[in-house]
Amino acid sequence: MSDKNRRRVRIEEGAKRIRVYLGGELVADTTRPLLVWEKPYYPVYYFPEGDVRLEMLSATGETKRSPSRGDATLYTVATAGRKADAAAYRHLDSPVEELRDHVAFDWAAMDSWFEEDEEVYVHARDPHTRVDILPSSRHVEVVIDGVKVADSRSGRFLYETGLPTRYYLPKTDVRMDLLEGTDLHTDCPYKGVASYYDVVIGGARHENVVWWYPFPAEESGRIAGMVSFYNEKLDIYIDGELETRPKTIFS
């Protein structure tokens, strides 16, 4: 593999104990994980093969191709009570030497993941992602279709690496009569499970533009019960100045 392709694979040694379970049985347990950024947004945990119960893995005969990591051999993971097809993979002949003796797992195919003794959801946490939640008396106004939907000086500003600032506002400062709950829920490994609202104004429905965390993760407890609005999809004024709508994957 050329140096150019090698630079495309970001790999770091992790310090946390990582465990993964299927069907109530421990499949892998390591204090020596590799963090591999298969995508730019977050890492994947790779386990040293000596820390994986390899007897639970059986090759499917299939492979999947990665331009940077090479062909991966796929394995079914089977415990006494569960089976997850093609849920593990190994880059046995990878041009990236560090990966050859490691095993990775499809996060969603497994039952549970733990970083130390805390269960983690959605994907591995990026050690370079930080979430800061700060109280602010700055004046926040949210306007949709010319209607002021929120007006607050008691917000909590959430700063998360790689994302625009999110303004969480008390429901007492929001026109909750214009909001209708939806069935959408999303998960975040840093904040927890979010619920959503549509905003309905004069018959026009703006779908899932508001969210909140009824029971956020412990480190994000400051935003419990507060609502936030997609900066990308509506007008937000901070101290009277209209913010430019950011361009993100949510735009």
What is the strand and helix layout of this fold?
Elements lengths: L2 H4 L3 E4 L4 E5 L2 E6 L3 E4 L6 E5 L8 E8 L7 E7 L4 E8 L11 E4 L6 E4 L2 E3 L10 E6 L3 E5 L2 E6 L2 E6 L5 E4 L9 E10 L3 E10 L2 E9 L14 E3 L5 E4 L2 E2 L9
Antiparallel strand pairs: 1-4, 2-3, 2-10, 4-5, 5-9, 6-7, 7-8, 8-9, 10-11, 12-15, 13-14, 13-21, 15-16, 16-20, 17-18, 18-19, 19-20, 21-22
Note down, in words, how this protein is organized.
Helix content is 2%, strand content 49%. The protein has 251 residues and is mostly beta strands. The protein has 2 domains: 3-120, Metal Binding Protein, Guanine Nucleotide Exchange Factor, Chain A; 131-242, Domain of unknown function (DUF427) (Metal Binding Protein, Guanine Nucleotide Exchange Factor, Chain A, Beta Complex), CATH 2.170.150. The strands form 4 sheets. Strands 1-4-5-9-8-7-6 form a 7-stranded antiparallel sheet, with no helix packed on it. A 7-stranded antiparallel sheet has the order 12-15-16-20-19-18-17, with no helix packed on it. The longest helix has 4 residues, at 3-6. The radius of gyration is 22 Å and the shape is elongated. It starts with a helix and ends in a 9-residue tail after the last strand.
